[in-house]
Each structure stands twice: as C-alpha cells, then as structure tokens.
Write a structure and sequence with these properties.
The protein is mostly helical. It is built from 6 helices and 2 strands; from the N terminus they run H-E-E-H-H-H-H-H. It is elongated. Bound molecules: zinc ion. The site of zinc ion (ZN) has 9 residues, from loops.
Length: 173
C-alpha cells in the first residue's frame, strides 16, 4: 500500500512550482490535486500529489521552505548584514563610541547619593568619606568618557579640522 502513494513519476529537476493547467491554460500550483482555476484533476489523489511535492522539495535544499500552495519558490528573506559604523562614517555622521564609562559615572552618582542619606550607625566622617569616594568615582567616569576616550577615538577629526582652521585664522589675522 505504501508504494501506491508514491508518485510514479515526478520530474524533480524541473524547478517550476506552478504549471499551466492542461485544460484551462491558467497558472496553478503544480503539486495540488486539482487546478485552482477550473478544478481539473492534476494528480490521481491528494496523497500522490503530496508525495510528489515532498520528493520534488527534498531534491534541492533551496526548496526546503517552499509551500505546496505557492506559485514560486520563496527568495531568501533574511535581513542584510549592515556595518552601521562604516555606513555612518560614509555619511559623515558622528557616532559616539560605545563606552563603559557611563556605568562608572552612575556608580559614582550612587555613592554620592548614599553620602547624604542619614544612617543612624554612621558617623559624620563616614558621610564625608562616602562623598569623597563617590565624587572621585564620578570624576574618573566623566574624565575617562569625555576626555580620554573621545580624543583616543577621534584624533583624525581634530587633525583634519586643525590645519584648515589654523590657515583660515592666519589669513584673516
Ligand atoms: Zn485549469
């Protein structure tokens, strides 16, 4: 019985998923039992049509996502891989580099905030020590982010703008 459901012949080399109906001449999915337009009997049974479709689909891995009811094999729909940093550079858009210093800044702000919270067990010098420590962490974050990292990532920009601006100033003075 199993062999009866196998298609006697299916041209798996033919990539077409839709055919022109032999009776009405309109396009219809190739592996459906009936023509969608006129109901012409294309396959002996739905099981035979299904087996033929599976044989055709498994012949080529590019057909893996294909629907039996479709007219065309779907094209690859994965989103394209884009280097946004490179694209921004082409367009002249300044993108701030990703940095860990904002976390340092927020930790410093947290310690600073703790310094002004009243704890019954903490003496005055504890508040002062916390405040100094928080301010130090906060400043390290700000200096690292704004001064150290930005000048390290964008030395070319200052060099580029430097000579031109310098020449302009020299000419006007
Ligand atoms: Zn038809």
């Amino acid at each position: 019985m199993a062999s009866a459901t196998k298609p006697r012949y299916v041209d798996v080399e033919n990539p077409a998923l839709a055919i022109d109906c032999p009776r009405c001449g309109l396009r219809t999915p190739r592996f459906l039992e009936y023509c969608r337009n006129c109901g012409f009997h294309l396959w002996p049974s739905s099981r035979v049509a299904s087996a033929a479709f599976q044989a055709w689909r498994d012949h080529d891995s590019a057909r893996a996502q294909t629907s039996r009811y479709a007219y065309e094999v779907p094209v690859e729909m994965a989103p394209p891989v884009i280097d946004y940093d490179e694209r921004a550079h082409e367009l002249g858009i300044h993108i701030f580099p990703s940095s860990n210093f904002p976390f340092v800044i927020s930790v410093g702000a947290f310690v600073l905030a703790l310094a002004v919270v009243h704890f019954s067990w903490m003496p005055l010098w504890g508040h002062i020590a916390l405040g100094l420590a928080g301010a130090a962490i906060f400043l390290v974050g700000v200096i690292g982010w704004v001064i150290v990292e930005d000048t390290r990532y964008y030395p070319a920009e200052t060099a580029e703008g430097g000579p031109a601006g310098h020449a302009h100033i020299e000419g006007s003075v």
